[in-house]
């Protein structure tokens, strides 16, 4: 008969855990069944993680440019959601964002959100996309992206969906006006048609990423 593992005997002085700090931050209340627009309007409208811009303002400006340029609805939605991963974490936000939205959007939209991150580092003169000045400041003048970013770029560059992710990078530029008011109304119909809003509310359904939405909605919960 196998023996149950034993809790090890304490050695030396017992050290209790330090008193936990609870981060106090005013978070505006959300409706009981939050929609994508609610989360963007109420929670992603202030800069976080040391960023100089709020995710919602930036992506709304990006999607507005895409709309004006006459892109199709999936491309506009990809622009609208492209940095939503920054609501969870800043590093690898393309991957976080794609995962967050995967249960609710088409595979193509999630794909564009995932790969825009890698494509941002690589110019494409055929559409007039240049290496961002912003990145010279962030990463230094001679920066070489890590191998996983280069591999993601090579993969995306040869993929039939390349151009939707490239469109996201195009309309990512010049979408950082901090004075621009947040206006999500122009996208309500596109969101209605292409984002499968759960009836229970984001963070309250049983999707594989519901916990990630809860983190976006309540980022200072102690546990
Ligand atoms: Fe991004
Ligand atoms: Fe962006």
The CATH class is Mainly Alpha
- Helix content range: 40-55%
- Overall tally of structural domains: 1
Structure annotation, total helices: 10
Order of helices and strands: HHHHHHHHHH
CATH architecture, please?
Answer: Orthogonal Bundle
- Mean pLDDT, all residues: 93
The named CATH superfamily: Hypothetical protein af1432
Strand content: under 5%
Largest β sheet strand count, sense and barrel closure: none
- Shape field: globular
Bound molecules: fe (ii) ion
Characterise the protein shown here.
With 223 residues, the chain is an all-alpha fold. It has one domain: Hypothetical protein af1432, CATH 1.10.3210.10. Helices cover 43% and strands 0% of the residues. The chain has 10 helices and no strands. Helix 5 packs across helix 8. It is globular and about 65 Å long. The model has no long low-confidence stretch (mean pLDDT 93). Bound molecules: fe (ii) ion (FE2) (2 copies). One fe (ii) ion (FE2) binds next to helix 5.
Key features of this structure:
mainly alpha, Hypothetical protein af1432, binds fe (ii) ion
């Amino acid at each position: 008969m196998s023996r149950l593992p034993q809790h090890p005997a304490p050695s030396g002085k017992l050290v209790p855990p330090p008193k936990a700090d609870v981060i106090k931050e005013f978070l505006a209340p959300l409706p009981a069944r939050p929609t994508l627009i609610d989360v963007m309007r109420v929670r992603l409208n202030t800069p976080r993680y040391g960023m100089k811009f709020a995710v919602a303002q930036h992506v709304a400006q990006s999607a507005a440019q895409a709309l004006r340029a006459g892109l199709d609805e999936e491309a506009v939605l990809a622009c609208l959601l492209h940095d939503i991963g920054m609501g969870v974490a800043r590093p690898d936000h393309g991957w976080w964002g794609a995962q967050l939205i995967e249960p609710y959007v088409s595979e193509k939209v999630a794909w564009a959100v995932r790969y825009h991150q890698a494509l941002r580092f690589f110019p494409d003169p055929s559409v007039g996309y240049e290496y961002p000045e912003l990145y010279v400041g962030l990463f230094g003048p001679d920066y070489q992206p890590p191998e996983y970013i280069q591999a993601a770029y090579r993969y995306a560059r040869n993929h039939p969906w390349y151009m939707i992710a490239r469109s996201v990078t195009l309309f990512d530029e010049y979408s950082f006006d901090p004075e621009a008011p947040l206006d999500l109304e122009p996208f309500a119909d596109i969101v209605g048609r292409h984002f499968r809003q759960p009836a229970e509310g984001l963070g309250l359904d049983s999707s594989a990423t519901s916990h990630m939405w809860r983190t976006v909605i309540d980022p200072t919960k102690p546990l």
